[in-house]
Design brief:
single chain, 419 residues, mainly alpha, Growth Hormone, Chain: A, two-stranded antiparallel ribbon, 15 helices, 2 strands, globular, membrane
Length: 419
């Protein structure tokens, strides 16, 4: 076992320097994301006891992503990409601290907080895409996203378990005359998260990342291949919003409190982490569609079981399928997207960031449509109806991604071969 781990570490060291720095930084930030994605939704549910407010928070967050993705394009003309990435990491911590320490947060404050956290995510994700694009090649992107997904999956197991245990332990505890409750526990967690964001920015400073040479980045007409990729992004966005909010909503309503979040995520997370690492380590570009299709099919099965049996059993099956689906989907999706950017950016002689920004618009369109559908069903019919059927609808629509992704891959490699 020791020899195998040593061999894997040596393989990691054989990767380009910038790729290794980015992976280590993302590993640290992986400790932050579960707090944003899972416990922020649970915190809002505790404050408002209404899943509609969680959806409103998500729309505000996704709007913040779009605003800063556009702003980031202009800032790249004057600031280093690594500095903007670091700013996004720090901003996410500051926004969470601000939200957690405001007493009796109302709807306007919820929208402002969501927009700020989205702004941080916009700086983080767009600059992450740009640095990953320039730090990797098509041949090692499966490994990059496999190892990154391994980090995120392990964090999605460990962080909820630790935080759930902390919140349960601290509730009602007295120390130095202070009575602690769950809300004070959330604030302690948020401060720890902020310290981790500082450590992540230090890690990133060891890299040597270059800004795009071509400064223009805002375009409205693109190659046909890229338009297909944007449709694929919209389909991804359609389900992405539900993956952030739905598990917390379902678990809080049908399973238990925050401690249950960690327990359910941990049941299948360990196996998923190992599987994703092995897939990233040993699969080739030609295997991406098989991985992509398997993940989406598994997600559909989970939503159907949840729809038929909206209870503790159905929710647990759905969350288990979701735990497998998300990293499998991302492992295949992002290398496909970056291959398309490699091809069309050379074909159209444009800044890589032009495609990263446009990609965010595609994701945003899907996210707003998906969350809009959930809000409409929740208020026009019932919240239970929305939790039961909205997931099935987006999962069925997501199946369209499989033939579309296959066509995109075929066309991108064909165009690359012609040149």
């Amino acid at each position: 076992m020791k020899n195998k781990l040593t061999a894997e570490y040596r393989f990691f060291l054989s990767m380009p320097h910038n790729m290794r720095v980015l992976l280590i930084t993302n590993m640290l930030y992986a400790l932050v994301l579960p707090v944003v994605e899972i416990f922020m939704a649970a915190y809002i549910m505790r404050s408002f006891d209404d899943t509609g407010f969680v959806a409103i928070f998500q729309v505000a967050m996704y709007t913040g992503i779009i605003i800063t993705s556009l702003t980031n394009g202009f800032l790249l003309k004057h600031f280093k990409v690594a500095h903007l990435y670091s700013f996004g990491i720090l901003l996410s911590g500051i926004a969470m601290v601000g939200m957690m320490f405001v007493k009796d947060i109302a709807l306007p404050g919820l929208i402002v907080s969501g927009t700020l956290i989205g702004a941080a995510s916009g700086f983080f994700w767009t600059n992450r895409y740009l640095m990953a694009l320039t730090s990797t090649a098509d041949e090692n992107r499966n490994y990059f996203f496999g190892l990154e997904s391994f980090f995120f999956t392990v964090s999605n197991i460990a962080v909820p378990l630790v935080i759930g245990a902390l919140l349960a332990y601290i509730d009602g505890m007295q120390f130095l005359g202070i009575t602690f409750d769950v809300y004070k526990g959330y604030r302690i967690v948020t401060l720890v998260v902020f310290l981790i964001t500082i450590l992540a920015t230090y890690s990133l400073s060891r890299g040597r990342f270059e800004n795009p040479v071509q400064k223009d980045f805002l375009y409205f007409r693109f190659d046909r291949l890229w338009n297909k990729q944007i449709l694929l992004a919209a389909l991804k966005g359609l389900v992405q919003g539900f993956l952030v909010t739905a598990p917390a909503m379902l678990i809080m309503k049908y399973v238990g409190q925050e401690g249950s979040l960690g327990l359910i995520q941990g049941i299948s997370g360990g196996l998923t982490a190992i599987l994703i690492y092995l897939l990233g380590r040993f699969t080739k570009p030609k295997h991406r569609i098989a991985v992509f299709g398997f993940g989406i099919t598994l997600f559909l099965i989970g939503t159907i079981v949840n729809g038929i049996e909206l209870s503790m059993f159905g929710v647990m099956v759905f969350v288990l399928c979701k735990v497998f689906f998300q990293p499998l989907h991302d492992l295949a999706y992002y290398p496909i997207m970056m291959k398309v950017i490699d091809v069309v950016s050379k074909k159209e002689n444009r800044n890589n960031y032009a495609y990263i920004l446009n990609h965010e618009f595609g994701l945003y369109a899907g996210r707003v449509i998906g969350l809009g559908m959930f809000i409409f069903l929740a208020y026009a019919v019932s919240e239970t109806f929305a939790l039961r059927y909205a997931l099935i609808i987006v999962a069925v629509l997501q199946m369209l991604s499989i033939p579309l992704a296959k066509n995109i891959m075929k066309e991108s490699y064909a165009e690359n071969h012609e040149r």
